Amino acid sequence: xxxxxxxxxxxxxxxxxxxxxxxxxxxxxxxxxxxxxxxxxxxxxxxxxxxxxxxxxxxxxxxxxxxxxxxxxxxxxxxxxxxxxxxxxxxxxxxxxxxxxxxxxxxxxxxxxxxxxxxxxxxxxxxxxxxxxxxxxxxxxxxxxxxxxxxxxxxxxxxxxxxxxxxxxxxxxxxxxxxxxxxxxxxxxxxxxxxxxxxxxxxx
Length: 204
Prior knowledge:
This protein is mainly alpha-helical. It is 55% helix and 6% strand. It has 6 helices and 3 strands, in the order αβααααββα. The protein has helices at residues 2-42, 54-60, 74-98, 122-136, 149-160, 180-191, and strands spanning 44-46, 164-168, 175-179. Strands 1-3-2 form a 3-stranded mixed beta sheet. α3 packs antiparallel against α4 (122-136). The N and C termini lie far apart (105 Å). The mean pLDDT is 81.
């Protein structure tokens, strides 16, 4: 009976510890998110009539040079590598069959014909075959997303919204959000000022 009570008390204590640790992690995550939101709002200036959500502030606070990781699979990446190598193999075969020692200048209006030459010698074809096998066995690492699911949703909403214009400020790293109509009107008023003159006829 004593052993059973001791085991049950240990289980209860361990369960309480796990719950406390879990709540502590959630609180730390919530606090860090709040800190990030406050810091991002300092670098985002919203002059539009649209109310931005917290996820949109977090996204825009990353700056205009931030690049989200693309949604591509390892199969797609391997196919792209194989496609590039096949183009390289075509150029190698063309060089093997048609190259000369004289260096010719390429015409500026030169267009690629896409000609597929015949196979080259054994060394060249062996290299191409071995490289194809290595590419087919290539292990491609999956991209780790640098945006959360909520931030990706906010990203899609901002892209599809034509009523706002997002740009970087001229003198600092602040991201400015304005209405599209206001931006167009400001540009039109600037062009209609005395600093610019409309050209009625073109003399060439």
